[in-house]
Write a structure and sequence with these properties.
Number of strands: 11
Protein name: PRTase-CE domain-containing protein
Order of helices and strands: HHHEHEHEEHEEHEEHHHEEEH
Pfam families: PRTase-CE
Organism: Salinicoccus roseus
Strand content: 5-15%
Shape: globular
Strand order of the largest sheet: 2-3-5-7
Helix content: 25-40%
Structural class: alpha/beta
Distance between the termini: 39 Å
InterPro entries: PRTase-CE
Radius of gyration: 21 Å
Domain PRTase-CE: 28-328
Length: 331
């Protein structure tokens, strides 16, 4: 196994343009010291492997934007005939991404996206960074749809995101079809994380700790509390812990044993953080924000703009004495 210094260098190279901190060896080492020293190399090895496949740099994001703005199905030559879905409601990463689109459009064609919607509009565009569980997106879509007197006037809606998580995609699709029954809806994305719980035997691209290994007492108690809130049918169909030996395919972790160890460490430290929050939040779980009765959403996805609260707490939480690896910019 490579030495710690070499692994830190690889980590820094993978996330060099993360916008909320100037990464250094000392920063990474300080975060690592919160875990047992004998596990530092495994944690770094797996993080580097995961981030090499899931981190979205500014250069890559710009490349994706350039590809989208040249798609005439989405952005016709007469951009006055298309409009953005609720741009005035955009904040945080979404607002920054809209600005990047505007800059790219102006640079490529000399036309500001402020021109959008000046004509008779029947086609709309929604742009955001990613879809996780979809709650925020569906809530925003519901509010936006309510502002129309005639839903048949919404002929087309293009949803453009860089990353999609598949766990709740069926729910999101059903909600879109219910809210916009007359609209042609297209979802465009570049990266897909397959994290459907019922497909976990084959593939699961997200942090989901394994059964069949021991957890400390605090974590065992936490798991028991979540299980008591779940129905027996739910717990049998989608267990709280990943079945040992699943998934059969894994493109992010280097091996099954390392995956079990890193997820165990992230869960146990995450439980410690969750149990000592100054202002406890019911949906803020050890492996990230999740309204479902799980141990957390467990997203791998991080971009140069920010880290989502759907990622494990150990990566971004900054309270109660915990030092974050990826300081998070609040919306």
């Amino acid at each position: 196994m490579r030495d710690t210094g070499d692994l830190i260098s690889s980590f820094l190279a993978a996330v060099s343009d993360y916008g909320n901190i100037n990464f250094s060896d000392g920063h990474v080492e300080r975060w690592l010291r919160q875990f047992p020293e004998e596990h530092h190399k495994v944690i770094l090895t797996e993080l580097v492997n995961i981030l090499n496949g899931s981190y979205l740099s500014k250069m890559e994001m710009k490349r994706m934007i350039s590809e989208i703005i040249t798609d005439r199905n989405i952005f016709p030559e007469s951009i006055e005939e298309v409009n953005f879905m609720d741009p005035e409601q955009a904040e945080g990463n979404q607002k920054m991404i809209l600005q990047m689109f505007d800059e790219a459009r102006s640079e490529a064609y000399g036309i500001s996206m402020a021109k959008c919607g000046e004509g008779e509009t029947a086609s709309y565009i929604y742009i955001d960074e990613a879809i996780w569980s979809g709650g925020r997106f569906v809530d925003g879509l519901r509010r936006w749809v309510a502002s129309f007197d005639d839903l048949q006037s919404i002929g087309r809606l293009d949803i453009i995101v860089f990353a999609v998580h598949t766990r709740d995609l069926d729910y999101i699709t059903a909600q879109m079809e219910r809210l916009l029954p007359h609209t042609r809806i297209y979802l465009r994305h570049f990266v897909e994380f397959s994290n459907r719980l019922d497909d976990a035997k084959k593939i699961f691209e997200g942090y989901w700790p394994s059964s069949g290994i021991g957890y400390n007492e605090e974590t065992t108690d936490y798991i028991s509390r979540i299980v008591k809130m779940r129905s027996n049918v739910r717990d049998e169909g989608v267990p709280i812990l990943r079945k040992s030996g699943y998934p059969k395919s894994d493109a992010y972790f280097t091996g099954a044993m390392n995956r079990k160890l890193v997820e165990k460490l992230f869960l146990e430290k995450g439980v410690e953080i969750a149990n000592h929050m100054m202002k406890p939040e019911v949906y803020m779980k050890p492996l990230g924000y999740d309204a479902s009765r799980t141990l957390g959403f467990g997203s791998y996805y991080i971009s140069h703009l920010n880290i989502s609260d759907h990622c494990p707490l150990v990566l971004w939480w900054e309270e109660g004495g915990w030092y974050p690896l990826f300081p998070r910019k609040q919306a």
